[in-house]
């Protein structure tokens, strides 16, 4: 008998039929003797419907009230889900965030979970009930309703699994696991059986939309065994876990493509100490996340500075950077939105020399021009021209043989 | 500067335009320097939409979960309402039942308010904010969500007004006040300026659907000055208040028609002590409210017993009564659904002899057959054939001259 937390996304509970379907899956786990906690998202389309309602009354809806509004989406799902279970004679109880006691800070629309008091959940589980919890939402210390932002239900599920020390946290979605790359971009993409938290974090931050990145960080920090699988099939999915012996012994596990970033270049920046601080402090103060930064070697006391920011923040970034650039005596501020970022990710990279070279070589062979490069211990990212995005994914997928299932490690590793 | 509680029903907040409209009315009160608490219902049609969703998943939805579901209706309205106010630069805050601390018992679907801790509402008012409160709902002592039943938002408003000792509680609806009778039944119906709590209670219980009956009882118990008025016009509405000198000096204030009841007759019941108890105890145990009971004079030790129950409870009543009737040796159990109940109501009745006679005379003149009669201090009700319902209303309205505004009392009353 295990304690299992399951999370079902919006497409899995999009209508009463699908809710009944998913509920039957939950009941099977419960009949097998497991304790079940089910975290649900709003029905697909519901959050957008509510946002549109809000937009009819306010161009820029108040953040606190928008959260009160959006929280109804999951409230509808958990109540429908629980009443279906009860109509089948299965004991079930829905809990909203103030009942499940999911406490967050007061950052409306992007709140962070700071604690969960599991007493009520445990009490309901002890009664033998299936507990359904409204995902995506929490309450602050005085009971204001907050939401965690898009994909927040993943975080709710992992946080509850961590707080309950659950044996497993299953994230049910409309794809059947984590792939070596997006199958819509490259049909040769292969489903992974296992992936490490670190690789998953890199892939998630790279734009793989299967798992919300905060939920992966949470899972890693509290060692929550996480499975990503489909609610529409019986396939086993992908286990996200600590890097271990059983992992595939390959240098690269996946290729990710992201089109979220824009590039800003400031030319002929006087190469003086403190210049970078002058430029990036106000950007950071505006809560804009700068991803890559590249500074060319200084020539005649001047340098070119290039960095990327999320496309949605480009306008604001330019507004901030232009006066500063003028102030410090730089020449021009240029920007470019038609860029893509292609990344290869793999824990095996650490022990494999030449991975970067192989990446650059494969791209060069197809005349894909690399504009910027950044690396971490388990990731290499290249900014390229937008039009080369899909081609780069296919080329790299082939270059690292990701379509071929690698042999499993046996015995002691060396 | 006054403390005003306003309640707007579903048709008044049926869409974003109407919400904006109503909000502007609230803002006028607030700009005049009043403290404003606004209780809102779900958008018209929303509760039915949610019930239909529930019915798709369960024929007989679990009561607790249905309340969780239905509570989203008002949550949507209060958040939209508050974000509109905020977008206009007016400080506003929505409060759900667990935030406004509206405590009820645990009778899901028909919960009773047992207390309100007004600390949070007062705190928000002190900050100069307009407070919007989700009507129709509460929480029990452990935080489960409950709903008060249809029309429950009226009760929420009156209860908050009572708890805050508000100067006024205004119930905004789609009609502009309390009428001498339903204007759709008789266009000569006249709007009343004032009506006593007692009269309003009788009218509400008689099927006048403008005010939920529990809210009137609440208002009377805590002497909350209540005004019923239209959100679509600037008309002053009707004040529901204690019976006083300023009331119209008429024996009858209104005529009500109800088609909610069915009649059950048990023939040749042996006239023994305890027989009535035998029959009515199991009916009461099944939570069926018996309205009128008539027992004919006993002939040869037998009597006929006739009573009315809500139409929706007729089937269940017959199931209960038939075996008991057989048991005690009664002859037959008959039932009739094609009945109507017409009532005249007025505090002036107490001091006016001959009101009943005038009622019977008016009906006899039109050959309306009276099947049952019941009276209270300020009400006379007659059960008649269903087809005579509207005719009876018009005849009685004319007989008591309700279309003519009566003179106001002047000086000392005698």
- Give the helix/strand class of chain A: alpha/beta
Number of strands of chain A: 20
Low-confidence stretches of chain A: none
Strand % of chain A is 25-35%
Helix content of chain A: 25-40%
Shape of chain A: globular
Question: Biggest interface: chains and residue counts?
Answer: A-B, 38 and 38 residues
Tell me the count of domains of chain A: 2
End-to-end Cα distance of chain A: 37 Å
Count every helix of chain A, treating DSSP H or I runs of 4 or more residues as helices: 12
Largest sheet of chain A, described in full?
A: 8 strands, mixed
**What spatial order of strands do you see in the largest sheet of chain A?**
3-6-2-1-9-11-12-10
- Give the overall average pLDDT of chain A: 91
Structure overview:
Two copies of one chain form a homodimer. With 414 residues, chain A is of the alpha/beta class. The first copy, chain A, has two domains: 3-174, Carbamate kinase (3-Layer(aba) Sandwich), CATH 3.40.1160.10; 245-414, 2-Layer Sandwich (VC0802-like), CATH 3.30.2130. Chain A is built from twelve helices and 20 strands. In chain A, the strands form five sheets. In chain A, strands 3-6-2-1-9-11-12-10 form an eight-stranded mixed sheet, sandwiched between helices. A four-stranded antiparallel sheet of chain A has the order 13-18-20-19, with helices on both faces. In chain A, strand 19 (370-376) and strand 20 form a beta hairpin. In chain A, helix 1 packs across helix 3 (63-87), helix 9 runs antiparallel to helix 10 (314-327) and helix 11 packs across helix 12 (389-399). The radius of gyration of chain A is 23 Å and the shape is globular.
